[in-house]
Design goal:
By secondary structure, the chain is of the alpha+beta class. It has 12 helices and 17 strands. Among the domains are: 96 residues, Ribonuclease Inhibitor (Leucine-rich repeat, LRR (right-handed beta-alpha superhelix), Alpha-Beta Horseshoe), CATH 3.80.10; 165 residues, Transferase(Phosphotransferase) domain 1 (Transferase(Phosphotransferase), domain 1). One of its GO terms (cellular component) is membrane.
Length: 384
């Protein structure tokens, strides 16, 4: 359902092409602000047309190099690939009333991204087109999910561009330096199956991440659909997903930080008893997450929903545990799984691993190595 969408005053995006909406108040002319900006730069000889006493937009030689002007007002700075370095003087940018875009790609500026947060709107990476604060404020947003860490929205602007915005609540305790360090880790990720942020916003009371919106691309969609389509994964495909997850655990890709989630489920896996009681995550939190996904893929039930086990309403972890203890394993398997007629035994073995991974007792829950070994011992999972 579409809802009115207001982001607030600030957004800060990652890269070196910025689109900015600045406040109306300013204390210097464009000329003075540009000269102040030039003074903060190193190797600024290429900006030799930026001289005092010459109108930036209407000089005898035309606009100063790198300027975009409309009606005698500087609306953009295009300084790509000029060999510039130094520290961008954000004060100068703030003083420019009409500035709408600022591009400094392929230069060597000091990384002062957080300082740029003083601008009312800073958008980077124009891969999805140019949009400003007013575009976002006028756009409608569809709630994609709510969880303990925050909410996710699909935002569609008037020009058709769609992005996913994640509002994070539980990171509000992070200071700007710690938050910046975490974002830097995210933006250096390079993998075809990892969606890195297009943008982020830092304020003490609010954190936003902006991602490219990928329609029908999540495991959530392929398992459960959207009410109209999707929701069908055959058995070999589900096996490949489990093998991929296990491979990540085997290679120890920073396993203490691994949490398997489909983003819009609100990090259900972090709601495991150990994490809730001790307010910390550990390798056994990773095991719990692995178990949740195994159970979800084999039962077809969403982790965040309650199920009826014959004795009352419970969650899927308790439902699976009870079914195994009472010998009712067959009723757990998703009847929509295709290509599984001769694989019931392997499916039950894998589901058993899911039950062991989600043991509510942290001490009795199996470890990563045992979980991986047990999965690898299931013959069919090795050959599919």
């Amino acid at each position: 359902m579409a809802i009115a969408w207001l982001f607030g005053r600030f957004l800060l995006f990652l890269s070196s092409t910025f689109f900015v909406l600045l406040p109306s108040a300013f204390s210097a002319s464009d000329s003075e602000a540009l000269l102040k900006l030039k003074k903060s730069l190193t190797n600024a000889g290429v900006l030799d047309s930026w001289v005092p006493g010459s109108p930036p937009c209407n000089g005898p030689q035309g606009p100063w190099r790198g300027l975009v002007c409309e009606g005698g007002v500087v609306t953009g700075l295009r300084l790509e690939g000029m060999g510039l370095s130094g520290t961008i003087d954000v004060d100068a940018l703030v003083q420019m009333k009409g500035l709408g875009s600022f591009s400094v790609e392929n230069n060597s500026f000091t990384d002062n991204i957080l300082e740029l947060n003083r601008l009312e709107l800073v958008i980077v990476n124009n891969e999805k087109g140019v949009f400003g604060l007013t575009d976002l404020m006028k756009a409608s947003a569809e709630v994609l999910g709510n969880g303990p860490l925050g909410s996710s929205y699909k935002v569609k602007m008037a020009n058709g561009v769609e992005v996913t915005v994640k509002r994070v609540h539980q990171m509000n305790a992070l200071g700007s330096d710690a938050f910046d360090a975490e974002v830097k880790k995210l933006r250096t990720l390079r993998h075809p199956n990892v969606l890195t942020p297009l943008a982020y916003h830092y304020r003490k009371e609010e954190k936003l991440f902006v991602y490219q919106y990928l329609r029908n691309s999540s495991l959530l969609y392929h398992l459960h659909g959207d009410g109209e389509s999707g929701g069908v994964l055959d058995w070999p495909t589900r096996v490949k997903i489990v093998r991929g997850i296990v491979k990540g655990l085997v290679t120890r890709v920073s396993s203490q930080r691994i949490c398997f989630t489909r983003r819009l489920e609100g990090l259900f896996c972090l709601q495991n008893p150990g994490a809730i009681q001790k307010q910390t995550v550990s390798p056994k939190s990773d095991v719990y997450c692995l178990g949740i996904i195994i159970i979800e893929m084999l039962t077809g039930e969403r982790p965040s929903r309650s199920v009826y086990d014959g004795n009352g309403v419970t969650d899927i972890v308790q439902w699976v545990a009870s079914a195994f203890s009472e010998g009712r394993r067959a009723e757990l398997l998703d009847t929509k799984i295709e290509g599984c007629r001769n694989s019931i035994c392997s499916m039950e073995k894998l589901l058993r691993v899911g039950a062991l991974c989600t043991n509510t007792s942290l001490e009795e829950r199996i470890g990563i190595k045992e979980a991986v070994r047990t999965i690898q011992e299931i013959h069919e999972l090795r050959i599919l």
